Amino acid sequence: MIDFIEIAGVLDEAECRALRAEIGAASGGPAGLMGRPDRQPAWQEVRRTRRAQVSPEMEASVIGLLTAQRQTLERHFGLPLSVCEKPQFLHYREGDFFVPHQDGNTPLIFDESRFRRISAVIFLNLQSDDRSAGTYAGGSLVLHGPYSGPDLRVAMQATPGSLVAFRSETTHEVTPVTHGERFTVVSWYRGMG
Ligand SMILES: O=C(O)CCC(=O)C(=O)O
Ligand SMILES: [Fe+2]
After folding, report:
1. How far away, in angstroms, is 158 Cα from ligand 2 center?
2. How far is CA 110 from CA 23, 101, 116, 133, in A?
3. Are 11 and 58 in contact (CB under 8 A)?
4. CATH of the domain at 177
5. Which coenzymes or cofactors are required (predicted)?
6. Residue 49 Cα, ligand 1 centroid: separation in angstroms?
């Protein structure tokens, strides 16, 4: 079993559109890998995504939205949560991806990622094979079941404005975008203490 929750309507369609426009227009650069800030760009075989620098106002409003969801997530996962990390505003073009990885809370790595308990992704546009304007194909966020169990992969349904959250130690990936542009916001809730 993979423990995740989907919360619809964290942003409405107009807010998603505004955020996509801001991310598309903002300056930015290749998103990195935690623990290897010296590698810029990150290994191109591991992660290919643009990270945009949005306005402080936009960032503050998204932190507000994430904070408003904290109690729901605490209840779902049965974990006390504290602050969320500075959100990342991500823009995937055709061919962009992120290989299977874990975001944190794994005993093998002793860096800032050890404080992460819950990963959250907000989808800003629709994944669809019909190639209509503003949609993308490929680019699935896929969660992997624990490797000790049966071979389990679950692709999340990207609906604009919905938030998907999962335990940060859950292996997950973003498959290559095959058409259009994919926009997401990601952040991580830390544990208490
Ligand atoms: O863009 C996504 O759907 C997820 C990105 C991700 O896994 C990450 O930033 O760690
Ligand atoms: Fe991740």
Report:
1. 15
2. 31, 15, 12, 43
3. no
4. 2.60.120.620
5. L-ascorbate
6. 9
- Asked if the structure places residue 34 within a domain, the reply is no
Q: What is the mean pLDDT of each run of 10 residues along the chain (193 residues)?
A: 96 96 93 76 86 96 97 97 96 97 84 89 96 94 92 94 97 97 97 83
Q: Residue 91: how many CB atoms within 10 A of its CB?
A: 20
Ion ligand 2 neighbours, Cβ < 5 Å: 103
Is residue 186 one of the residues assigned to a domain? yes
Residue 61 belongs to a domain:
yes
pLDDT, position 1: 85
Q: Does 84 sit in the ligand 1 pocket, CB within 6 Å?
A: no
Helical (H) or strand (E) element with 153: strand 153-155
Residue 79 lies in a domain: yes
Total number of domains constituting the chain: 1
Examine the predicted complex and report whether its ipTM is higher than 0.90.
yes
